[in-house]
Amino acid sequence: MKAPDLILHNGRIATLDPQKPRARDLTIQDGRIVGLDNAQSFSRGDNTVEIDLDGRTVVPGLNDSHLHLIRGGLNYNLELRWDGVPSLADALRMLKRQAARTPAPQWVRVVGSWTEFQFAERRMPTIDEINAAAPETPVFILHLYCRALLNRTALRACGYTRDTPNPPGGEIQRDKNGEPTGLLIARPNANILYATLAKGPKLPPEAQYNSTRHFMRELNRLGITSCIDAGGGFQNYPEDYEIVRQLHQNDELTVRIAYNLFTQKPKGEKEDFARWMKMTKPGEGDNFYKVNGAGEMLVFSAADFEDFLEPRPDLPPSLEGELKEVVMMLASNRWPFRLHATYNESIERFLNVFEEVHREVPIDRLGWFFDHAETVTDRNIERIRALGGGIAIQHRMAFQGEYFVERYGANAAQRTPPIRRMLELGVPVGAGTDATRVANYNPWNSLYWMVSGRTVGGLELYPETNRLSREEALRLYTQGSAWFSRDQERKGTLGVGQFADFAVLSDDFFSVDEERIKSIQSVLTVMNGRIVFATEDFSSHAPPLPPVVPDWSPVAEFGGYGAPGYYAQNHSACALPGHIHTATCGSHSLSHSGILRRPARIGLLTLGGLWGSGCDCFAF
Fold first, then answer.
1. Cα–Cα distance for residue pair 576/525, rounded to 1 Å
2. Is the pLDDT of residue 609 over 60?
3. Taken in order 274, 279, 283, 289, is the CA torsion positive or negative?
């Protein structure tokens, strides 16, 4: 018998397999699990690696069912991350430092994944503050799907002047003299934001390759071993997939990717899909990189953008005809599909179309699903189940919950989305983030949101009846997500014959204080039986990674989520984000994580901040 490649023992292994829910050792050979709690029965070889887990908790590799990894990887080394940064003062100091490091004509870009509610100051930066931090270097700061902030230099780089007309669906805010202020507003869609971002310089291919490797390593640091890539605006197939294809060819993928194809042409969606059907097909590829289907954009008339600072968009009457034509073509060619759907009013219309198609071409075994579904009703969940569909949910409300409550009220927010009801009604549900723009890629923020029902700013959104146990939440991030790429027989649990994908955790997810769930990361991540990340006691097993390219990259200076590089340099007593250090200011209690410990009143949300933001103390 061939000797195993890897043996891990003395662990607390949560297999999520009901036949054997707990184990102490794992044996791995050729990328698969070949033994549980029987390591002593395997003969060791010269190349067998054995690791003592010293009682650490092990979980199946996390699988983000809605992540924009391919687009995010191409840009990761370009972006300054405010994700997890606890104060606006720190964020502005990072911005100032990066502006000084960034050579012309490059920009400093903060591309989403943060909210003012994470900051101790509880407010947005002002345009004046951004101009002061970066007077010479173009700065673009994306805030959710609703707005972007540009400094004076970025306005010049984009050519935005008093004579520039507002594009369809967007607004260039102007002062009393008609000059652009630097605020771009999505009304009603984010195209003005993404089109402006696309004006900035790109990385050359060799740096995009390096950038994608570093992004995957960052995901591995958080325990992610698989994802379903949801495509995205300005992500063209096959051109923008070339880097990840090369990584796969060179056996350098450290995250399994099943990818969906996202149409890029309003009124030309059918032509996009027809062209791709001649080039590829669902399932083409292998266990590391494969086509998953169509979407999340199927037709532009069905795009119900979730900007809760604006009223719900009224989708055009052309929706039904255009959507039916595309879905009929996909179903006839047996292409699974996914569709972005925020509001129940939109889902109602989409389901009417799907039921029409189903009467002609059955879709109940196709593996189709909705993304998001924040306000879906029980009746429409039942209709989704009847058509064999699923729902991929994300923690976008952890970033936008305060806005939703301001517009629709706290009672309406209690089912956004109704995860517990989805499970009770028997619909497949998978968990994810929708990173890297509206929410961050940290899965532990998403798991915390499902368990606690709170936003990243500490607002309690959900009653106990719409929260999940820790095991239920973890199942959605593992077994649940596997359904959405038709991989439920191969991953999601730690059983004999399953992929050897798992994460050894820094803390015990099942018993750690609820607030500390957000601080969990992996100390040892294994994908396909290969160690792809290791730190702390396991550092000797860490695989090599080339230096960040270019050397002025924000990642080289600050790192990824939580800016670990920044805190290691500036806060020696608290180098890791999430270690709670509390200070007080009047009626506010502030922590390193930026959470307001006392529930805040939600007031008028403006660029300058909100009620109560006059506090000028910081977490440190």
1. 19
2. no
3. negative
